[in-house]
Amino acid sequence: MKTAVLAVTAALGVLPAHAWSASDLVFEPAYFEQAAPVTAFDMVARLPGFVIDSGDAVRGYAGAAGNVLVDGVRPSTKNRTLDDILKAIPASQVARIELIRMARPGLDQKGAQLLANVVRITAASSVHAFTLSNYTYTDGTTRPAFRAETSRRGIAGGWEASLLLSRNQDESGNGERVKRSPSGELLERAHISVDSPIRGAEARMAADLPLAGGTARGNLSLTHQDYRTHEAIAFVEGGMSGLNARTDDRIRTNSGEIGGEWSRAFGGLNTKLLMLATRKDIAVRSASDDGGTPSDYVSDSVADERILRVTADRTPERGAAWEISTEVAYNALESRSALSIAGTPVALPGGNVTITEWRGDASAQVKVPVFNRLSAEMMIRGEASRLEQEDHASGFVYSRDFGFLKPKVLLRWSPGTRGQVRLRAEREVGQLDFSDFASSASLLEGTVDAGNVGLRPQTSWVFEADVERRFGADGALTLALRHERIDNVLDLRPVEGFDAPGNIGRGKTNAASVQFTWPLDSVGIAGGRVSFSGEWRHSRVRDPVTGNRRSITALAPFEGEIHASLDRPALRSTFALDVYFGQKLTYRRINEVRQTLAEPYASLKWTFNATPRVTIETSVQNILSRKHDRDRFVYAGPRGTDDIQFEENRWYRSRTGAFISIRYQH
């Protein structure tokens, strides 16, 4: 059997991984050589049949797992995305990348069905890199950025640090806003201009080193972002013809994180201790003047999180493996907001609140190799939490206790290294977003959302089946079906006359997804490949305003992307086309139905390795100058009992931009 595995993996151009799980695939640096990758992110992005998933943005550590490991462990951070972490690892410090398709001893898999494990070299090395980049848009706007990175690896461990100073902009452009009566009569036409500049700064450091017979890992990060949106409106037809309006929005975010993990093996028992603390300060300042009616919105919030987690696992070379863990987390949010229209304050439910939560989480997991090609993974997690909210305006204090059991069963069957079937059944429990307890408003969108003290977590039973097939040297195809039976669907519902996040009963979601990587050598295009990832969704829930069945709010019926690349080593170049398909989102409020649609976003990129130390990347971003549409159907009163008062269409085309970066690395 081992000889057969070696033969198949040799045909794939990779090597077999750990003997406990011969279905895993190992990609050596030589596999990526033609693409001349600069960072570990460039390498992981080219793994056939794999898409990076950064995990969920939730409180706590256990539920935020992504699908990429570094040296077999999850990074001890929540403030950095996997993309950022991988881009901080130079390709020259990667020894290999393992695509984990079966349960494997010693890896922090957290139940993921497919994992990438970036294994760094242990030999001494150091890399220093400096990158200058600039975006230039069709209106003449330029947005420069500078990044400095340094890293050092040794036999015992290493460290890395980076500094980023950036200016950029979100999609900006020009368009039109048209308002009509239900009969089609023109009520208003206006030209609009949208500009969204962004400024940011980041300082990060991470290290791992031997400590007390084990390994200590730590990270520290500080980030700042200033995100502004300016929308100018010039009325050209209708009752406000000749007038101008403007909305200026500013969101300033400062965040910091410090985290550490210590792991050590005691005989056959592996133990880990994690401590993590984060803080995020968000200030919103928004002002608008719509035809002589001024509005102002102010919001300040501070979020804190503290996590302590202990894990122990026993992972023998063969036979059953097990893991137990416990986690305690403290979370707090202080939020204050105020809205005034034409100088008159508007009372917002939950406009001045403090929310605190103590959460405990414990889990036990068993991984059993049923036979050489079949493994079963069974997990039971339990969580208990106490949530307390204080409304400072009314003095009202409210507390609630929650408790849930979350079982999970995952089966993996690998009839060979070229195929695998994965079956999953799991009870998932969503987390309540603290910001849903506090009021918020958007003058740009013209919406006010009240806070809702009566929220309950959304729970669901999830059943999923994946079928994976690999072909040729790079080809991979994965088909998946997923069914979710949801209780306490979180959506929008009326609260004290306002729209607010709330539970609206039972619902369901069915989804089908396709992922494939197709090498183009078979059609005569040497060094070419195309990859596609897409998911189609259909959801149903009962509308709390009309009582009719409809889709879940803001759940896109389709989401997908396609990437094509062409390696030309003789030219020291790689060419790429990236397309992100647009999304259609629907929001149903008390007296409004809103639909947003963004057309596909496409970019062309050329990466040129000028010298072993200098890499030049140029690209044309948003080459289709995609259109952003927003349709509003506003009713005279609650939907289902009143007629449509007016219809509004707002659209603009975002500008195309040219990007260039020069990276020097030594």
From TrEMBL:
The keyword Signal is annotated on this UniProt entry: yes
SUPFAM superfamilies named in the record: Porins (SSF56935)
Keywords, ordered alphabetically: Cell outer membrane, Membrane, Receptor, Signal, TonB box, Transmembrane, Transmembrane beta strand, Transport
Cell location: Cell outer membrane
Transferase in keyword set: no
Recorded topology in the membrane: Multi-pass membrane protein
Domain TonB-dependent receptor-like beta-barrel: 243-549
Domain of life: Bacteria
Family annotation (Pfam families): TonB_dep_Rec_b-barrel
Cleavable signal peptide: 1-19
PANTHER family: HEMOGLOBIN AND HEMOGLOBIN-HAPTOGLOBIN-BINDING PROTEIN 1-RELATED (PTHR30069:SF29), TONB-DEPENDENT OUTER MEMBRANE RECEPTOR (PTHR30069)
Protein name: TonB-dependent receptor domain-containing protein
